[in-house]
Amino acid sequence: xxxxxxxxxxxxxxxxxxxxxxxxxxxxxxxxxxxxxxxxxxxxxxxxxxxxxxxxxxxxxxxxxxxxxxxxxxxxxxxxxxxxxxxxxxxxxxxxxxxxxxxxxxxxxxxxxxxxxxxxxxxxxxxxxxxxxxxxxxxxxxxxxxxxxxxxxxxxxxxxxxxxxxxxxxxxxxxxxxxxxxxxxxxxxxxxxxxxxxxxxxxxxxxxxxxxxxxxxxxxxxxxxxx
Length: 227
Description:
This protein has helices spanning about 1-20, 190-195; strands at about 25-35, 45-55, 60-70, 70-75, 85-105, 115-140, 150-170, 180-185, 210-220. By secondary structure, it is mainly beta.
């Protein structure tokens, strides 16, 4: 079981070694903040960092990120509106991703924009370790000694795909420093392990997430963008 869980990360490690083996023209570090919503309008936040090998019109990207969403509450009452049971749950994920970014794929112009503004499409392969936690409390006012609380946790692995559309503004013709805004779609299912928690009465599984993100890229080796 442990070997099976490690296979996705072994694949990503191999990709990282291949990444650093290339004759890099522009290695950039980057940070990203994104917010996603699914069909229930649940907000999912992502903080991401990674490296980007940029050789326009194609870039290869590896990243690590952290996803989390809001607490969820379930309560059961008696006829006097007294809380008998309460379950508080939350899920988060540590995510690794590799992506291939294609710039200006629908443009016939081979030259880069004089304004430094380029658009891109980036499909991404993701591996996530999802952790769902819950706190369950049961109260009995007729027999207080039978009341109890319990902390529970479930871990789940998921391999999933995503795609990103964005506009990237290069700040200088002499470097790859840039800022980008993106529209994102992925199939990360943070709710699936929540639905498997003991005492849970709802199905939280949602596959489709749509979001917006902001990137900041820093050129690490200062090669000229224009040749």
